[in-house]
Design brief:
This protein is an alpha/beta fold. It has twelve helices and six strands. It has a single domain, classed as 3-Layer(aba) Sandwich (Rossmann fold), CATH 3.40.50. Helix 2 crosses helix 4. The mean pLDDT is 94.
Length: 274
């Protein structure tokens, strides 16, 4: 919580880690809540079940339950849940975009503290979503690097850190989905894609604004993922800004400088009408 005279806007932070690693105290989450707390925002860094424990859609359900809880308890904690934004990085970017652009009633399988099956807290309409180098569509993720001209083994080698949890699967998204890509049905591919959810305009929220930030040297999640989301949202007539940061790799500290985060703060305040 910041030191402010009036209730501060709420900024929900979702860590990355390929759905399988990290927690609410990740390096990137700490960059975010330290900066934004000190600049007048109430920050909530949330945990969710990781894929070794629970596969799709557990983490989406957990995030949406956390958001419902935070809004239901705004008076107790002292922030303004009428002004709410969500940020995520990498897999957290996926979760942020999915939370913002899926239908409010979708992914309600996790009960928030204080909820019952018969009495769910309302899911708020976000004012803004900030996506840092998020995974947006698993199908195009597999072809984006080829489109960039990258030799296949380069991103595979760069992402070898994930091998310790993969077991029988070849990728983190397959572990999370509990299925090899070859076994995914067409409906599953659409259902699990934030890009397709946004394309179908499931969440009819005309005030939602999006800021997409991605390093153009990312060999973990191609920057074309953010370009594709930008194109879809623009085509839908939605308010979206894309910033490709030159020579920045995945989770690059240069994406978290005072200057970069200052631009995010300006975007959020404009989204809140301030």
């Amino acid at each position: 919580m910041p030191h402010t005279d009036e209730p501060a806007p709420l900024f929900v932070l979702i860590h990355g880690g390929g759905f399988a690693f990290n927690d609410a105290q990740s390096r990137q989450a700490q960059f975010m809540y330290r900066y934004f707390r000190d600049h007048g925002f109430a920050c909530a860094s949330v945990n969710y079940r990781l894929s070794p424990e629970a596969g799709y859609p557990a983490s989406i359900c957990d995030v949406k339950a956390a958001v419902r809880f935070l809004c239901q308890n705004a008076d107790e904690y002292g922030y303004d849940a009428e002004r709410i934004a969500v940020w995520g990085e990498s897999a957290g970017g996926y979760l942020a975009v999915m939370s913002a652009y899926s239908a409010p009633e979708a992914y309600s399988g996790t009960l928030a503290i204080g909820e019952t099956e018969e009495n769910r807290f309302p899911m708020p309409a976000f004012d803004a979503v900030v996506d840092f180098y998020g995974v947006i569509d698993f199908e195009t993720q597999r072809t984006d690097f080829a489109e960039e001209g990258l030799i296949t083994w380069i991103p595979t080698l760069a992402n070898g850190w994930a091998n310790e949890v993969l077991g029988e699967y070849d990728s983190l998204e397959e572990l999370w989905m509990r299925k090899n890509h070859a076994d995914w049905g067409d409906e599953e591919k659409i259902e699990a894609s934030p890009l397709r959810r946004a394309e179908r305009q499931e969440n009819e929220n005309p005030s939602l604004r999006a800021l997409l930030i991605h390093g153009d040297a990312d060999i973990t999640v191609s920057h074309l993922q953010s370009v594709d989301l930008y194109d879809v949202l623009r085509e839908n007539g939605e308010d979206v800004t894309l910033k490709l940061v030159p020579e920045c790799k995945h989770a690059d500290d240069r994406l978290y400088t005072e200057e970069q985060l200052g631009e995010v703060a300006e975007f959020l305040m404009a989204s809140f009408g301030g």
